[in-house]
From TrEMBL:
<keyword id="KW-0812">Transmembrane</keyword>
<feature type="transmembrane region" description="Helical">
    <location>
        <begin position="175"/>
        <end position="197"/>
    </location>
</feature>
<keyword id="KW-0350">Heme biosynthesis</keyword>
<feature type="transmembrane region" description="Helical">
    <location>
        <begin position="298"/>
        <end position="318"/>
    </location>
</feature>
<keyword id="KW-1133">Transmembrane helix</keyword>
<feature type="transmembrane region" description="Helical">
    <location>
        <begin position="253"/>
        <end position="277"/>
    </location>
</feature>
<feature type="transmembrane region" description="Helical">
    <location>
        <begin position="228"/>
        <end position="247"/>
    </location>
</feature>
<dbReference type="GO" id="GO:0016740">
    <property type="term" value="F:transferase activity"/>
</dbReference>
<protein>
    <recommendedName>
        <fullName>Heme O synthase</fullName>
    </recommendedName>
</protein>
<dbReference type="GO" id="GO:0016020">
    <property type="term" value="C:membrane"/>
</dbReference>
<feature type="compositionally biased region" description="Polar residues">
    <location>
        <begin position="389"/>
        <end position="401"/>
    </location>
</feature>
<feature type="region of interest" description="Disordered">
    <location>
        <begin position="389"/>
        <end position="413"/>
    </location>
</feature>
<dbReference type="InterPro" id="IPR006369">
    <property type="entry name" value="Protohaem_IX_farnesylTrfase"/>
</dbReference>
<feature type="transmembrane region" description="Helical">
    <location>
        <begin position="358"/>
        <end position="377"/>
    </location>
</feature>
<dbReference type="GO" id="GO:0006783">
    <property type="term" value="P:heme biosynthetic process"/>
</dbReference>
<feature type="transmembrane region" description="Helical">
    <location>
        <begin position="130"/>
        <end position="154"/>
    </location>
</feature>
<keyword id="KW-0472">Membrane</keyword>
Length: 434
C-alpha cells in the first residue's frame, strides 16, 4: 500500500495520481528565500532616523547623552532579541517542515496505524495496555521516519528528475545531506531503543530489519528490477507483525493475517500508481513493471490476481478464531469490490480505470483494519481452538465446536481440569467451593 501520499506510498502516491497535485507546490518554493530573509533579521540595523527620533544631538548635556545612548542600546537590544527569536522560530519551522517531509509523515502515520492494529489484535482478550500501544506507535513512527529519510537520501538525483518528488527537501536544497543523515540516524536509533526498552527485542528487531530491507534493499532495487514492488510489499506487511510482537512477545500463525492482507493489497495499489505515473518513473530511472508493459495488460492481470488472493483472508481469520463470522462476510464483500475495479481495469486499461482501482485500494485498507478490530475475538477463544485442534476432533464435530469456542469459556474449579485426561479412569476428585 504505499509512496509519498495514503495516504502516501500510501500517501505520496495519492497526490501524485492527480495531475494537479504533481505540479510544483508554490508553498515550498520560497523556502530558501524565506530562510535568507529570516537570517537577515538577526542583525537589525539601527537607523540614523531612529537616533534622531530619540533626540540624540551634540548640544545635549552628558547626562542627557548617557540617558539617550542607554535608551538606544536598550531599544537595540530589545529589537535584537525579538529578531533573534523570530529568526529561531523561522529556522525551527523550516527544519520541522523538512523533517516532516523527509519522514513522509502521512505515509509513516499509516504505517503506525497498521502497527497499532497489529498491537491490538496481538493483545487478545487482555485489556489493551495503552502505554504499550503508545510506545509501539511512537517507536514505529520514529523508525519509519528514519527509513523514509534514508530512502530520500539515496534517491536525491532520481527525485530531482520526477515532477512528483523534485520539491522534496533534499533535491530542492532546503536541507543538506549531513543534516538529513543525522536526522535519520537519531530518529532510527531512538525508535529502536524505545521499542527495545518499552516493548521487547522481537518488535525492535523486526522494525530495525524492516528499515534495512526498505532503505538498503528495496530502495536500490527500484533502479534495478521490477521485482522491487514485491520487496516493497514485504516492507509494508511487516509493521502489523511488529505490533503483534510488541503486544504478545511472539509471532503466531494468527499474527500473519493482517500482514498477508497488506502484502496482497499493495500490489493493486502500486500497479495502479505505476500505471498512472509511468512517465515520471521513467524520468526518474526506476524500473517499474509498468514500463515494460506498454499495453498495461500484464500489470492489470497482476493486480486482479492479488485481489483474489485476499478473498480467503476473512474466512481464515474466522476459522482461526481471530474474528467473528461478520468479518468473514465484510472482508469478502470488500475484497470482491476492489477485485471488481481491478477487473474493470483489466478489461479497459485507461487512466480513469486505473485511478478507480487506486481509489478503491485507498478505501480498502482502513475499512479492512476497522473490520478486523471491530470483530476480533479474544485470545481465550483462540486458545480453545488450538486445544480443539490438538484433541483431533472429527470434522463432523468441529462445526459444533466452532460455535462453542466462540462462547465465553466458563471458569471451572482447577481440579475439574485435572480430572480430565490422562487418567480418566480415576475417580473424579470432588470440588468443594467455600
Ligand atoms: C517500521 C518500518 C521501518 C516501517 C517502514 C514502512 C515503510 C517505509 C513502508 C513503505 C513501503 C513502500 C514500499 C513505500 C514506497 O516507497 P518509494 O520509495 O517507492 O516511495 P517514493 O517513490 O515516494 O519515494
Amino acid at each position: 500500500m504505499w509512496r509519498r501520499s495514503v495516504v502516501s506510498r500510501f500517501s505520496s502516491r495519492i497526490s501524485v495520481s492527480s495531475s494537479s497535485s504533481s505540479l510544483p507546490n508554490p508553498r515550498l518554493i520560497p523556502w530558501s528565500r524565506e530562510l535568507c530573509a529570516v537570517n537577515s533579521f538577526s542583525q537589525p540595523p539601527i537607523s540614523s532616523e531612529s537616533t534622531a527620533k530619540l533626540g540624540i544631538s551634540g548640544n545635549r548635556s552628558d547626562a542627557n547623552k548617557v540617558f539617550a545612548s542607554s535608551t538606544v542600546a536598550a531599544t537595540a537590544t530589545t529589537g535584537d532579541i525579538s529578531s533573534r527569536v523570530a529568526s529561531m522560530a523561522g529556522l525551527g519551522h523550516h527544519y520541522a517542515r523538512c523533517y516532516w517531509e523527509l519522514s513522509k509523515a502521512r505515509l509513516s502515520m499509516l504505517v503506525v496505524a497498521t502497527s497499532g492494529t497489529g498491537y491490538i489484535l496481538g493483545t487478545g482478550n487482555a485489556a489493551i495496555d495503552f502505554a504499550g500501544l503508545c510506545y509501539t506507535c511512537a517507536g514505529t513512527m520514529m523508525i519509519a521516519a528514519s527509513a523514509n529519510s534514508l530512502n530520500q537520501i539515496f534517491e536525491i538525483s532520481n527525485d530531482a528528475k520526477m515532477k512528483r518528488t523534485m520539491l522534496r527537501p533534499l533535491p530542492s536544497g532546503r536541507i543538506g545531506v549531513p543534516h538529513a543523515v543525522a536526522w535519520a540516524t537519531i530518529a532510527g536509533a531512538s525508535g529502536a531503543c524505545l521499542l527495545a526498552s518499552k516493548t521487547n527485542m522481537l518488535a525492535a528487531g523486526l522494525a530495525s530489519a524492516n528499515l534495512v530491507l526498505y532503505a538498503f534493499v528495496y530502495t536500490p532495487l527500484k533502479q534495478l528490477h521490477p521485482i522491487n514492488t514485491w520487496v516493497g510489499a514485504v516492507v509494508g506487511a511487516i509493521p502489523p507483525l511488529l505490533g503483534w510482537a510488541a503486544a504478545s512477545g511472539e509471532i503466531s500463525l494468527n499474527s500473519m493475517i493482517l500482514p498477508a492482507a497488506l502484502y496482497f493489497w499493495q500490489i493493486p495499489h502500486f500497479m495502479a500508481l505505476a500505471h498512472l505515473c509511468r512517465n515520471d518513473y521513467a524520468a526518474g530511472g526506476y524500473k517499474m513493471l509498468s514500463l515494460f508493459d506498454p499495453s498495461g495488460k500484464r500489470i492489470a492481470a497482476v493486480a486482479l490476481r492479488n485481489c483474489f488472493y485476499m478473498v480467503p483472508l476473512g474466512f481464515i481469520a474466522y476459522d482461526w478464531g481471530l474474528t467473528s463470522s461478520w468479518f468473514c462476510l465484510e472482508s469478502t464483500l470488500l475484497t470482491l469490490a476492489i477485485a471488481a475495479t481491478a477487473f474493470s481495469f483489466y478489461r479497459d486499461r485507461t487512466m480513469q480505470k486505473a485511478r478507480k482501482m487506486f481509489h478503491a485500494s485507498l478505501l480498502f485498507l482502513p475499512v479492512f483494519m476497522s473490520g478486523l478490530l471491530l470483530h476480533r475475538v479474544s485470545n481465550d477463544n483462540q486458545q480453545q481452538l488450538v486445544e480443539d485442534n490438538e484433541a483431533g476432533l472429527s470434522n463432523s464435530a468441529s462445526n459444533e465446536v466452532k460455535t462453542q469456542r466462540r462462547k465465553k469459556p466458563v471458569a471451572q474449579p482447577p481440579v475439574a481440569y485435572a480430572s480430565a485426561a490422562p487418567f480418566p479412569f480415576l475417580p473424579a476428585p470432588s470440588y468443594y467451593s467455600p
